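WARN  no MSA supplied for this record, continuing single-sequence
INFO  ligand: zinc ion
INFO  echoing inputs
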Amino acid sequence: MRIKDAAICLRTVNYSETSQVVTLFTRENGKVAAMAKGSRRIKSSFDGPIEVFSFGEVMFITKDFGGQLAMLTEFSQQPRFRGFQRNLYMLNAALFAAELTERFLEDHDPHPELFDKFQKFLETLQQTNAESEILAWLILYQLRLLEETGLAPMLDACVNCGQTRVGTAHPTYFSSSHNGLLCADCEMAFPEKRLIDTSMLNILQNPAKLPKTEMKDLNKIESLLIYHFTELLHKPPKMAKYFG
Ligand SMILES: [Zn+2]
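INFO  complex generated
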């Protein structure tokens, strides 16, 4: 089947001296791994080599029997997301978001809203300079990625007993394995939990506050999310070492 779609490249691996295997986040078809034959040649059907964050309209052919790489036949690249190199922190934030997107999406499972959010996240990053704002936008995107992939944590009640007074008077904990808060009565039974203070909880419950949050609180939230991603993926994300 021949498919035309909008795409952002999440990952590239050189396949031979002239070709690449690329992982694309497409708007209507989700994550697609494709062979880009001849993409490393100066003259190719892909406007030159494909890089992470290459953006534009793609054409690819999928095999009907599944499980195989798609064949990329066209990539009309627009110079949209090429400004990250000027700021290493920004580049690392963008790469971290790309890595997590690649890890959490299933092949050919469409997430058009997440695609739009990823595109918007990359656009917003390029207009940002302060590290605190960059980290705030990264956290917002990470929370949306969890929501869109059905992994949104439960942050308004204890995941174990359901009581809703968590986070008020007593210390509150977050359990990655149970994907939510634990109250003071339940926390003893969950050894992998992390303590979560009221200011962190307040921000996580109201993510609109993120852009106005101080760096030290953002770092605490990012550390918690890295713990959560590490548990979910059974190993730390590669880009985690630059954050938290
Ligand atoms: Zn409880």
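The first strand starts at residue 2 and ends at 14.
INFO  checksum written, moving to next record
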